[in-house]
Amino acid sequence: MKKAVICFTRIPIPGQTKTRLTPLLSGEERAALHTAFLRDLAGVFIQVDARLYVVHTPEDRQGLLRDIFPKACGFFPQEGEGLGARMENALDRVLALGYDACVLVGADLPLLTAEHLESAFSALARTEATLGPNPDGGYYLVGLRKPCPALFDGQVYGTGSVYGEAAAALRKAGVSFSPALPCGDVDTPQDLRELRPALAGKDTHTARLLNQLIARGIPL
């Protein structure tokens, strides 16, 4: 099976990323955290037998992502109105390159491991689609073997029913589906505080940055 992974991300620019962590973190601190997330993901992606593509917003004029992901096969901008359209266009574009399976993940995943990605590709070896649930009722990962407009049409994001509604849309469209392993993401200050014990004793970019933030007196 010819496999691809898409990292779907914003550019880690101060003041333009992780805004839901305001006012706990400054714009510079939020950008540093996002960069740490991406550097940890880069280490995960190279453990998986799949080609990497980075789909981003806005334009990467400073080449920040090329520095973080030197082994990526391609970088291209997110296109479309709304999150669903942007994810769909990214998946369709990479699948059109001749891949048998493509998995898209977000950037806010400091607990992601190669096992999560392998579980998604294992699901795609059996079925046409996979979703990776997260604890808030959404999904952090979506994988397809071919374009699937039904998965994105009319979907509303940012609610606690996103995963269930996406799974229901797949069933209604007759698309075979199997879930990937669950994984939490980091959107809010509470997510960030819960992350600290999960990374205790680990030597990752994110763990080191959290220790630095705590040393500055930030209440984590």
Overall description:
This protein has helices at 27-45, 64-68, 83-95, 114-126, 162-172, 189-198, 205-215; strands spanning 3-10, 51-57, 74-77, 101-105, 129-133, 139-144. A six-stranded mixed beta sheet has the order 3-2-1-4-6-5, sandwiched between helices. It is an alpha/beta fold. The radius of gyration is 17 Å and the shape is globular. The chain contains seven helices and six strands; from the N terminus they run βαβαβαβαββααα.
Amount of helix: 25-40%
Total count of strands? 6
Percent strand equals 15-25%
- Segments where pLDDT lies below 50 for 5+ residues? none
Order of helices and strands: EHEHEHEHEEHHH
Estimate the mean pLDDT confidence: 94
Rg calc = 17 Å
* Biggest sheet record: 6 strands, mixed
Spatial arrangement of strands, main beta sheet: 3-2-1-4-6-5
Separation of the first and last Cα atoms: 43 Å
Continuous helix count: 7
**What general outline do the C-alpha atoms trace?**
globular
Structural class: alpha/beta
Quick rundown:
With 220 residues, the chain is an alpha/beta fold. The protein has helices spanning 27-45, 64-68, 83-95, 114-126, 162-172, 189-198, 205-215, and strands at 3-10, 51-57, 74-77, 101-105, 129-133, 139-144.
Summarize the SSE layout with pairings:
Layout (H helix, E strand, L loop, with lengths): L2 E8 L16 H19 L5 E7 L6 H5 L5 E4 L5 H13 L5 E5 L8 H13 L2 E5 L5 E6 L17 H11 L16 H10 L6 H11 L5
Parallel strand pairs: 1-2, 1-4, 2-3
Antiparallel strand pairs: 4-6, 5-6
Helix pairs in contact: 1-7
